[in-house]
Amino acid sequence: MKIGFVSLGCPKNLVDSEVMMGQLVSRGHTLTTRPDEADVLVVNTCSFIDPAKQESVDTILEMAQYKKAGRAKKLVVAGCLVERYRADIRRDIPEVDAVIGTNELERVVEICEGLGDGEGAPAPYLYHHLTPRVLATPDHFAYIKIAEGCDHPCSFCVIPQFRGSFRSRRFESVVAEAAGLFERGVREINLIGQDTTCYGEDLGIRHGLAALLARLAQIETPHRKWIRFLYAYPNRIDQRLLDTIAAHPDLVKYIDVPLQHASAGVLKRMKRGASGEIFLRLLERIRRTIPGVAVRTSLIAGFPGETERDFEELCQFVEAARFDHLGVFSYSDEETSGSYHLDRKVPARTIYNRKRRLLAIQRKVSRARNRQWVGREVEVLVEGPSKETDLLWEARMPTQAPEIDGVILVNDCEGRPPASGEIRRLRISEAHDYDLVGTLLPASEARPPVRPGSLVQILPAAASV
Ligand code: SF4
Question: Could you tell me the CATH number of the domain that includes residue 31?
Answer without folding.
Answer: 3.40.50.12160
